[in-house]
Amino acid sequence: MLSDFSFEEMKEYVVKLGLPAFRGEQIFNAIYSGKTLEEITNIPKALKEIIKDDYPNYKILKKFVSRDGTQKFIIEFGDGNIVESVLMKYKYGYTVCLSSQVGCRMGCKFCASTLNGLARNLSSGEILGQLLLINREIGGSEKNRQITNIVLMGSGEPLDNFENVCKFIDMISSSRGLNISQRNISLSTCGLVDKIELLAEKRYNISLTISLHATLDEKRAEVMPIANRYKISEIIEGCKNYYQKTKRRIYFEYTLIKGVNDANDDAVRLSKLLKNLNAHVNIIPLNEVKERDLKGTTRLEAYKFADLLKSYGVSATVRRTMGEDIAGACGQLRNKIIKDANKK
Ligand code: SAH
């Protein structure tokens, strides 16, 4: 698909077709403006005919607006697969939460993205496409970027789709690709240690977020199968190396699940694990997924957990939950759409 190409690759592509390089720039600009092929007015019909099978055909299938202003989009790709992407408005601008895979194979018990397993990886251009469609939807274009921040925290495990996610980061942060600062990009992972090592080699200025969610390996394995592969101690070691190489502060996600990881002892252990790591912990009460019988804590309990962490010298905040009335947590909306479609 043509949205997989960088600016240079697009020019090479048209030159190979025997056309002048500026045609590549025109196609590139049209894609970054979120235009459909039909909407392009400055390239000849014959060229449209040549590129039509490769021109991006992803589209916004549905849009849901939450009472708090959060918007959730269901985006459909050419093969009929759908993902969800979320737009959140903060004081400093718009943040978009993107999916990196269709479904997920990590199997976390609390997460709706994983209920149907992994369908397939998204290409770099499909990850990008979510952003370009939403940018256009809120009045942006290739020259007028509305979105300031990106979080790779939608469905999928970004580091399980390593090459495509890295290419996406390269493309979106390049001066010819919306020029979004790497400092404004967060990547969240359940902790694939070997991939964290590879990511460190890229020397990106992105923020790395680790979904830890437990302080004991046995407890972690109860809710996150990946814990059978990597120990918490290995993840922390990987983070230390990552920090040494990139000097970027590391963030930890800690979803509070009642009776699983919310004890005072957990806060004590977590503070010990994170000692000497310039880390910040984001705490969020579980957003309950009805297919699973895990329960969240109250927000008050979350604040208490955060206070306890802070009393042990760990920087921590309770995350705002957004879009709860529109199936806010990862993968919930996609599942609902798939289920509703199956009912018909
Ligand atoms: N696979 C990546 C990114 C996707 S999930 C990862 O594991 O980090 C983004 C974050 O939302 C993760 O921290 C994930 O554990 C969390 N999450 C998923 N489902 C949730 C739910 N129902 N309630 C609260 N947090 C959830």
In short:
This protein has 344 residues and is of the alpha/beta class. It is built from 11 helices and 12 strands.
Sum up the structure in keywords.
binds S-adenosyl-L-homocysteine, 11 helices, 344 residues, 10-stranded mixed sheet, alpha/beta
Description:
This protein is of the alpha/beta class and 344 residues long. 35% of the residues lie in helices and 20% in strands. The protein has helices at residues 7-16, 21-32, 45-51, 124-137, 162-172, 193-202, 217-223, 232-246, 264-273, 299-311, 332-343; strands spanning 59-65, 71-76, 82-90, 93-97, 101-103, 118-121, 147-152, 185-189, 207-211, 250-256, 279-285, 315-318. The strands form two sheets. The chain has a ten-stranded mixed β-sheet with strand order 1-2-3-4-7-8-9-10-11-12, with helices on one face. The chain has a two-stranded antiparallel sheet with strand order 5-6. A hairpin with a 5-residue loop joins strand 2 and strand 3 (82-90). The model has no long low-confidence stretch (mean pLDDT 93).
